[in-house]
Specification:
The protein has one domain: 3-Layer(aba) Sandwich (Rossmann fold), CATH 3.40.50.720. 46% of the residues lie in helices and 15% in strands. The chain contains ten helices and seven strands. It starts with a strand and ends in a 6-residue tail after the last helix.
Length: 275
């Protein structure tokens, strides 16, 4: 049976990582929108990859479990790239928590049950998770270890606590990194690894939505005042994803790689610091 790489969220970043780790393997592209998966599949097929597609809503356990079954029928799951999500401009707080926080926990749980020995996973989080003020040790532990189906019932995630989409996004992305730390322990028992990447402003269609949306001026200011002075590219995230999923990253698990051109550094200690 072939080795299988599962890409959830068939956008620019998921594709960029898949190009680096999917050679000689079967790439299963899953997305909420079939047309997105089909478009990505055409690009990768034309580039010589063996590809199939699936539709998944990551906030549905039934659909995530069905995706696992589809993937295991194809072969040994040696890689999982979880790049699906919604941004603050695109969705309500409740939707962001359901997709970005609960959906990621579901993917980690379901694929952690079947990941092959020597396999690896990467979850795309965000620099937004590094914006959130520190949580308490109890809150960290709750986000990391609460059983998946009880996560959205946590008091700290209720509508009276999370009232803005940006806050929902920040806490979801912080939770992604915490969840991956806890899951790395469980994946390790299967001989597999899992990490998060927290990108900054990467030039993708989602970033264009943000740059032209109500927060656009703030995003442009972030780019201008960051140490790097520019946004990033999906290929740069792809290079980090390949490191984390490949043999050179064999000693890295349960980690979060912040790659934001120094925006977080400027936010905490530079010109982007809140007045």
């Amino acid at each position: 049976m072939p080795d299988v790489i599962v890409v959830i969220g068939a956008g620019s970043i998921g594709q960029a990582i898949a190009r680096r780790v999917g050679v000689g393997k079967h790439v299963l592209l899953a997305d909420l929108r079939p047309e997105n998966a089909d478009a990505a599949a055409r690009i990768l097929s034309d580039a010589g990859f063996e590809v199939s597609t699936a539709t998944v809503n990551v906030s549905s356990r039934e659909q995530v479990h069905a995706l696992v079954q589809t993937a295991t029928a194809l072969g040994n799951i040696v890689g999982v790239i979880h790049a699906a999500g919604v941004s603050p401009t695109q969705a309500s707080p409740a939707t962001i928590l359901a997709v970005d926080l609960y959906g990621t926990a579901l993917v980690l749980e379901e694929f952690g049950n079947v990941i092959a020995r020597g396999g690896s996973g990467v979850v795309i989080a965000s620099m937004s998770g590094h914006r959130l003020p520190p949580l308490t040790a109890e809150q960290n532990a709750a986000l990391a270890t609460t059983p998946t189906d009880e996560l959205l019932a946590l008091p700290m995630l209720q509508p009276n606590q999370v009232t803005e989409s940006l806050h929902a996004y920040q806490i979801s992305k912080r939770a992604n990194a915490l969840r991956v730390m806890a899951e790395a322990v469980r994946w390790g028992k299967r001989g597999a690894r899992v990490n998060t990447i927290s990108p900054g402003i990467i030039f993708t269609p989602l970033a264009r939505d943000e740059l032209t949306g109500p927060r656009g001026a703030g995003y442009r200011r972030m780019i201008e005042l960051s140490p790097a002075g520019r946004g990033g590219t999906p290929d740069e995230v792809g290079a980090v994803g390949a490191l984390l999923m490949g043999p050179d990253g064999a000693f890295i698990t349960g980690s979060d790689i912040l790659m934001d051109g120094g925006v977080s550094a400027a936010y905490w200690y530079g010109e982007l610091a809140p007045k």
